[in-house]
Amino acid sequence: MRLTRIHVDLxxxxxxxxxxxxxxxxxxxxxxxxxxxxxxxxxxxxGRDYHAxxxxxxxxxxxxxxxxxxxxxxESPLRLVLLQSIARGEKMxxxxxxxxxxxxxxxxxxxxxxSEVRLDxxxxxxxxxxxxxxxxxxxxxxxxxVLPPVAALQPMAAALAALPEAQHHLxxxxxxxxxxxxxxxxxxxxxxxxxGPEGGWxxxxxxxxxxxxxxxxxxxxxxxxxxxxxxxxxxxxQSRFGDW
Length: 244
Prior knowledge:
The radius of gyration is 20 Å and the shape is elongated. It starts with a strand and ends with a helix. It has six helices and eleven strands. Helices cover about 30% and strands about 25% of the residues. The model has no long low-confidence stretch (mean pLDDT about 90).
């Protein structure tokens, strides 16, 4: 039987007794209805799962005994960073959730010329916190014990100027000649994949991407929506160069 996994933003060590944060306690005892003596798995993003046992508690408080720590080995050798022009509402949540399940190593949300979502700094901070929660929940479900970081929302130009070091920079372009099937790279490559907004990349965006060293690739003969394109490309890259 698969055990319930839950993220806690606290140091963890075998043999310790831990009072869970209120949200985690509420989820375990009220939502999942665990009881004293029931087992669960905790993780804090350090790459390990910590087996634990509920000792006592109520809907707001819970104490657990932390047992064996187990190293996880399910991170892809392909380090894939998703540069995503932000999408509306649930579309962005869906992209983050599925990309996390597929093994993406990090997220760079950007606002591009045709982005339909415009956020002031306060709203952007709130959305980022929400996006981090979406990624954390996807890690809980998928068994990942390393949390992919979600960068602060940036304008396209700023994000491109501060790109992480990578061997390959790709952007999805339905008019490109190259396809993922024709790419060559080592299995442990680092890739930044850029996916455009609902309205597609503008000519100015394309120029910026080209100047930043990105190569355009297409997935096939059909134009995909932004919430489909990135997920499809990640799956294709994982199949060719990752751990699928």
